[in-house]
Amino acid sequence: MTDSDVTISMFERIGGSATIDRLVDRFYDRMDTLPEAKMIRAMHADDLGLIRDVLKRYLTEWTGGPRLYTPEKGHPRLRQRHFGFAIGDAERDAWLLCMRGAMEETVTDGAARQDLNKAISGLADWMRNRT
Ligand code: HEM
Asked: Is the Cβ atom of 34 under 6 angstroms away from ligand 1?
């Protein structure tokens, strides 16, 4: 095996935990303030402190970084965990508006941002549970 065979994870491509921390903080700041995100903000607890920490742990693991989510929370079963919230096209779009803005601000590598956007948009699509 040569060096070129080593796969670089998305976690490394975007700049590791420093970037994930900023990304998630900007994401919830946007959710907390954008008028377009009001309906998804209302689904969340008043205090966003806890969920900031959980999403940081989840995204760290999902992008190929350290396993900070599963050992504590068990298998993600993310779609099931969202069944309690009515998520249709409008909610997905609001979520992605916050996430894409946060990515623009925090993920400086354009190619990595494009790939991450593609993967996370697929995940947001899959999270819909209402037509
Ligand atoms: C598509 C629209 C989405 C909406 C409206 C939404 C909404 C929510 C809400 C209301 C919660 C509960 C928050 C709380 O406990 O206060 C939650 C939890 C969570 N969401 Fe989403 N979400 C969406 C998509 C996503 C996507 C795409 C991801 C992953 C990239 C994600 C990751 C998570 C995680 C990790 C949790 C915590 C689950 C746990 O308890 O372990 N969500 N979401």
From this structure: no
Q: Is 23 in the pocket of ligand 1 (CB under 6 A)?
A: no
Report pLDDT digits (tens) over 35-88.
Answer: 999 999 999 999 999 999 999 999 999 999 999 999 999 999 999 999 999 999
Q: Can you give the CATH number for the domain in which 81 is found?
A: 1.10.490.10
Q: Is the CB of 52 under 6 A from ligand 1?
A: no
The reply to whether 62 falls in a domain is yes
Using the atom order of ligand 1, give the atom closest to the CA of residue 48. Answer: 16
Our answer on whether the CB atom of 96 is closer than 6 Å to any ligand 1 atom is no
CA geometry: angle 61, 80, 125, nearest 5 deg: 75
Give the per-residue pLDDT at 3: 56
Mark out the alpha helices in 35-88 (DSSP H runs).
Answer: 38-41, 49-62, 70-73, 78-81
User: Which pLDDT band, with edges at 50, 70 and 90, does 6 fall under?
Assistant: confident
Does a structural domain hold residue 131?
no
Inter-residue contact 93 to 125 (CB < 8 Å):
no
Domains of the chain: total: 1
Residue 7 is assigned to a structural domain of this protein: no
